[in-house]
Amino acid sequence: MNTVESLGYLKGLLDGLDVDNKNGAQIYKAIVDVLDNIVDDIDDIHEEVSAVEEQLDAVDADLADLEDIVYDDDCCADDCCCDDENEYEIKCPSCGEVFSVDGETVDEGGIECPKCGEYLEFDLDGDEGTEE
Predict the structure, then answer these.
(1) 53 versus 72: which is more confidently predicted?
(2) Within 10 Å of residue 14's Cβ, how many Cβ atoms?
(3) Do residues 83 and 107 make contact, with C-beta atoms less than 8 angstroms apart?
(4) Is there a contact between 84 and 102 (Cβ–Cβ < 8 Å)?
(5) Alpha-carbon gap, residue 37 to 29, rounded angstroms
């Protein structure tokens, strides 16, 4: 039995007992009135929570759209803002080993050759992905 049903049952009991003629009838009626107000307040809270849930769902949908725009993998044709996702082919000038590095490694400025161990520095002022 939920709160509304319980309150209805309590009101029915109060009406059926005919407590108007007995001592303390005003107390029982006051208690039922307070409970009735509490049920009304709870109903108002449920309505407000439902409205907030609808607003939150709308904000969530808008945020998902924004995330799609901001984090889109195909955001630009020339990869101007997606350097960390690019791969660069590097050729070691010492041993001739050819290997690939990602954009994050290029941004760090250099890497050791996996074959000979020579440290290769990347020139970030010139073309990206070329070694000094």
Answers:
(1) 53
(2) 16
(3) yes
(4) yes
(5) 12
